[in-house]
Amino acid sequence: MYLTTFIIVSIAPAHADVVYPVLIESRSDNSQGAVRVTKDYIVNLEESSVLGENLFFTDTRNGEATHELMDTTSLRNSVYENSEQAASFTITKTPTGIEMEGYLNFTHGIKPLRINDRSGRIPHKIFPLPKLEGETDLDLPVDKHLNESPEPRADAELPDVWRPEMYIMIDSSINEYLRGIKRLQVLYIVRLMNIVNAIFKTVKKPKINLQLVGIYRSQTKQDEPFIVEEDGFIDAYKTLDAFAIFTRSTSFARHADFYFLLAGRRLGKRNQQGKLSSTILGSANSGQVCVRGQNVGIGVEVPLLYTTFTNIAHEIGHLLGSTHDGNPPLFKGHPGAVSCKPPPSHIMSITPGPPFTFSNCSEKEMEYILKLRGKECWMTHSYYDFFNVTKEVAGSKITPEKFCQRINPEQHVSAEGGNCSITCIRKRNTFKRYPAPFGYPCGDGKRCWFGTCEDITNKTQSDICAG
């Protein structure tokens, strides 16, 4: 609240809601720099917290899926966040200045104005984030097998930080709205999930920091067989079931703890007369994180309206174990949230709102589900960890075949290695060459390091790893 007021007051003497952001370059290797939004309002730049070293981009067209392993370095130089102010935005450098677009906080956004300005700088508009009308989601019946789950160990030692790994799917409508441009879509998703993650980073025990491991794009309606569309709406209940089946039977580029579908069309649920009506904004299987074939959610996302991040956080909250504030436990042993009936409003209220945090009940519910799922769920299986830089891993666990199979399982035919590069041979006699992973043997006792063959004895982790 204070930040919002400060922004409005600081720009009032000039042009009301028009500002001219300026990039302040950093002189330190430990800083990303900052943006001066107004004379008195400066936002320090931080790298995106949802991005790891690599990101898979899965593209589907005419029933054929391809997987690309993206280096996130360039992405991290374009999309930023600020944890303290809950900001997430992209920065594009132009000959006349920077274009800044995204979220200044949970209540206000910023975007460039496509107009000429005599100052030679790029004018931007600060605007209050709108709100979509509709119920957040529908209360789904809890699967019977949840009641059969063993009680979590009371002495289970949780990690300090839980990084639930997510694969974000975008439907053909979002693909079309963002003009089918892959980089534009990736930056948009990272910016969106940064602001969603800012909500989860308010959780105290354990700390939660979402990790984006893959983006899955459907280019046409024929590429999204899991979407059930009737009477001009996506049937949320049927689509969620079909989406769950799809994730169970599909070979993704890598494992994820949950899969979330962003739909650029209206979701609907059936009323008492059996007709679909657009009254909901999302749906998810509660407590099903890390349960293969059930760990799915869906949410409405209208690009460039900046409206749905609270609803997306709400649905992911369900996946991680939270029920609606005020509701009873999901199953025997689950804490439930009866003692947290609104007001005040939180993210897991029926209508999420400020202060954009989880209630104490929600935090206890997520902690319970994390203990229930166990160590396999809270371990991070990132690409970086998979190709860990140890001689043991480099010598015995990484092969050209495994590397290429991991990157593009649908198109993989064979693989070849040499000169610190790996060539993946694909269907239809096509191929793609990648730098060999760090630590890959290249002869004479040397290893590949940033694409060159070097002696990396002092650069790798110890061969004797603590398990």
From TrEMBL:
The lineage of its organism: Eukaryota, Metazoa, Ecdysozoa, Arthropoda, Chelicerata. It comes from the Eukaryota. The keyword Metal-binding applies. PROSITE patterns: ADAM_MEPRO. One of its GO terms (biological process) is membrane protein ectodomain proteolysis. This is Putative metalloprotease. Residues 162-382 form the Peptidase M12B domain. InterPro entries: MetalloPept_cat_dom_sf, Peptidase_M12B. GO terms for molecular function: metal ion binding; metalloendopeptidase activity. It comes from Ixodes ricinus (Common tick). Zn(2+) binds at H314, H318, H324. It holds the Pfam family Reprolysin. The active site is at E315. Keywords: Hydrolase, Metal-binding, Metalloprotease, Protease, Signal, Zinc. Residues 1-16 form the signal peptide.
